[in-house]
């Protein structure tokens, strides 16, 4: 049996490049969907990624989002495959005098 879950990786004002804390997933399987939302935008460009790792040391890109350059922009994106390693985190690369709030989440199915 599977249950859908959402884990918020990053939700903060971004004025420079930011990396979220590492989250640990347990018993994950099924499908994955990444979500990015930029709000409170006044300037800049924001490119987000979700990374995953088997050990918390070696990181691989799971999802790459299109650069956001406008207020209230959002994107939903699926990874290239349905394999997600145990540790996940989000990164935002910000440029051009950035100022906005960026939220990155991962929705997934977990085994119950």
Description:
The chain has 112 residues and is mainly beta. The chain has a single domain (2-111), classed as Jelly Rolls. It is 0% helix and 70% strand. The protein has strands at 2-14, 18-19, 23-24, 28-53, 60-64, 73-77, 87-111. It is globular and about 40 Å long. It starts with a strand and ends with a strand.
Features:
112 residues; mainly beta; Jelly Rolls; seven-stranded antiparallel β-sheet; 70% strand; globular
Can you tell me the CATH topology? Jelly Rolls
- Series of H and E elements: EEEEEEE
Q: What is the number of domains?
A: 1
Which CATH architecture would you pick?
Answer: Sandwich
Which of globular, elongated, flat, extended, rod-shaped describes the shape? globular
The whole-number mean of residue pLDDT values reads 82
Oligomer status: single chain
Structural class: mainly beta
Strand content: over 45%
Secondary structure: number of strands: 7
Q: Runs with pLDDT <50, length 5+?
A: none
Portion in helices: under 10%
- CATH class (first level) name: Mainly Beta
Largest sheet: 7 strands, antiparallel
Number of helix segments? 0
End-to-end distance: 5 Å
What is the rounded Rg?
14 Å
């Amino acid at each position: 049996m599977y249950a859908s879950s959402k884990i918020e990786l990053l939700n903060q004002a971004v004025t420079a490049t930011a990396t979220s804390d590492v989250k640990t997933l347990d018993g994950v399987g099924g499908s994955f969907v990444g979500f990015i939302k930029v709000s409170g935008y006044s300037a800049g460009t924001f490119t987000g990624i979700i990374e995953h790792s088997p050990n918390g040391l070696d990181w691989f890109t799971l999802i790459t989002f299109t650069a956001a350059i406008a207020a209230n922009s959002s994107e939903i994106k699926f990874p290239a495959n349905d394999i997600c390693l145990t540790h996940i985190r989000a990164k935002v690369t910000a440029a051009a005098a950035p100022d906005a709030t960026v939220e990155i989440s991962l929705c997934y199915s977990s085994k119950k």
